[in-house]
Each structure stands twice: as C-alpha cells, then as structure tokens.
Amino acid sequence: MGGFVLTKKQLQMGTTIITTEDLRDFKMELLDEIKQLLTNQSGQPSKKWLKSPEVRNLLGISPGTLQNLRINGTLPYTKVGGVLYYNYQEIMQVLEANKIHNKF
Q: How many other C-beta atoms can be found within 10 angstroms of the C-beta atom of residue 45?
C-alpha cells in the first residue's frame, strides 16, 4: 500500500492538495479584491481632515479657486501652524448645499 493513510473524516470531506502556486494565486486574488474595496469606497478618503492639495485634487480646482472659496466663506477650514485643513464632511455638505436641480 501507499505511504499515507486517509482518516475517516478526510474520506467523507474529500481531500484537496494545495500547492504553493495555489497559495500565490489566492494571495494575488485577495490583494486585488482588497485594492478594489479600497478604491470603491465611493471616493471617500479614509481620513477626516484633508490638506489643500488633497482638496484641490478631490474637487478638481486650482489653488486660486480654493483660496477664493476660503476667502468668500464658501469652504470652512482650520489653520494649524500655517497648514490649512478641511473637514471632508463639510466639503460634502457644501457640495450638497450648492447642488442645482434642473427641471426639464
């Protein structure tokens, strides 16, 4: 007979041999799914406070436009040690408050 013996439980469940390549494939699939989950969070950043470059990228605006939004009071901000911070939820509230509903 062979060099190994199957237990009763293994015979009932069926035995699957997993190779190193199988594990590598599983790892790559898992990483791809995690990346997809991270990018599909409805675009919401994972942190509450954003710096100016992050806000400009989020809104697709120039530094001058962001400055105008601060000056005219449209976009609230906090200044700590010369660095400007914007609350992500407040940015979303400003966008919602200024949403235009066209009725055709």
A: 13
Q: How far apart are CA 97 and CA 92, in angstroms?
A: 9
Q: Would the CA dihedral through 80, 82, 83, 89 be positive or negative? A: positive
Q: Quote the Cα angle for 102-60-76, to 5°.
A: 85
Neighbour tally for 14: CB within 10 Å: 6
DSSP state of 50: E
Tokens of 73: 């009071």
List pLDDT tens digits, range 55-79: 999 999 999 999 999 999 999 999 9
The neighbour count for residue 56, using CB atoms within 10 Å, is: 15
Radius of gyration of the chain (CA): 26
The CA distance from 2 to 4, in Å, is 6
Two structure tokens written together for 49: 């406070």
Nearest to 75 by CA among 46, 1, 57, 84: 84
Indicate whether this model's pTM tops 0.85. no
